[in-house]
Amino acid sequence: MELSHIEHIGIAVKNIDEAIKYYEGVLGLKCYAIEEVKDQKVKTAFFKVGQTKIELLESTDPEGPIGKFIEKKGEGIHHLAFKVNDLQGALDKAAEKGVRLIDSKPRKGAEGLNIAFLHPKSTHGVLTEFCEEQK
Ligand code: ZN
Question: What's the 96 CA to ligand 1 centre distance in angstroms?
């Protein structure tokens, strides 16, 4: 498979407005988009550093994936997302090599991207996302 770059790093936060203050006020980044992804029960805020984005994730539902993550582990890095050219192809290749997939088919993520996750049990503890531009 071909990974072109780290598309974004997903960071789970309790309060997105407070977290934005840190990224803007301390790190001097600019939040350029806030978007709710109903599918994943999250509100997201985006920053750009070079060609990599920081994606802040606040849960909109304690039963959602980010709500559960924060309850178990607290705030922090949640996932690493690689940009791929062919998402379905990359998923199929990973599965062939014995990697456990959370999503065997692409689904819609924020920012007009198709996304899919690999299970952290198969990736040495890092929840890994592949994403591609919607075609
Ligand atoms: Zn992501």
Answer: 23
Which two structure tokens, joined as six digits, stand for 18?
Answer: 């407070």
Residues 110-127 have pLDDT tens digits of 888 999 999 999 999 999
pTM of the full predicted structure? 0.91
Sheet holding 113-118, edge to edge: 33-37, 42-49, 52-59, 3-13, 76-84, 128-133, 113-118, 107-108
Distance 129 CA to ligand 1 centre (A): 6
d(CA 117, ligand 1 centre) in Å: 9
Domains of the chain: 3-133 (3.10.180.10)
pLDDT digits (tens, 9 = 90+) for 2-33: 999 999 999 999 999 999 999 999 999 999 99
Q: Say how many Å lie between the CA of residue 113 and the centre of ligand 1.
A: 10
